[in-house]
Amino acid sequence: MYLEQYGGSSDVWLTKVLFRMRLFYNDLYLKVAQADFRNFQRICRLEWTTLERWHSENNFQTHGVTQKNALRAYFLAAANIFEPDRAEERLVWARTAMLAQAFSWPLQRNDYIDIMREDLH
């Protein structure tokens, strides 16, 4: 993880000479980045709890959407929409992905055509 590798004011870049970048690498930036990361993790946990509850309340498991699929949909959304104030967009993205998977799940089953033929007769 980048934040774990970031050295703050003790970072040194080796080029032709030993060079300290005090304007870019300092402990204040490190603390701000860590606080921002912790805040985003907190937001993500709250959003995931909401999405997990929505998954179980709507019985998505019976429609082929596992909890792992729901988590993958959420993290795909969180990786692309990472601004904290865009939480609603992340949840809508994840819910849409889950709904799309639930709708396409019967089509992926091998016995779907047989079931449809039986329903027609």
Characteristics of this structure?
121 residues; terpene synthase activity; Isoprenoid_synthase_dom_sf; magnesium; magnesium ion binding; metal-binding; mainly alpha
Describe the structure.
- With 121 residues, the chain is mainly alpha-helical.
- The protein has one domain (2-120).
- The protein is built from 5 helices and 2 strands; from the N terminus they run H-E-E-H-H-H-H.
- The protein has helices at 2-5, 27-57, 67-80, 87-108, 112-120; strands spanning 13-14, 18-19.
- A two-stranded antiparallel ribbon has the order 1-2.
- A hairpin with a 3-residue loop joins strand 1 and strand 2.
- It is elongated, with a radius of gyration of 23 Å.
- 10% of the residues are buried.
Helix and strand composition category: mainly alpha
Count of helical stretches: 5
Strand line-up across the major sheet: 1-2
Spans where pLDDT lies below 50 across 5 or more residues: none
Question: What's the rounded overall pLDDT mean?
Answer: 82
Largest sheet: 2 strands, antiparallel
What shape does the CA trace take? elongated
Count of domains: 1
At a glance:
The chain is mostly helical.
Q: Which SSEs are present, and which pair or pack?
A:
Elements: H1 2-5, E1 13-14, E2 18-19, H2 27-57, H3 67-80, H4 87-108, H5 112-120
Helix pairs in contact: 2-3, 3-4
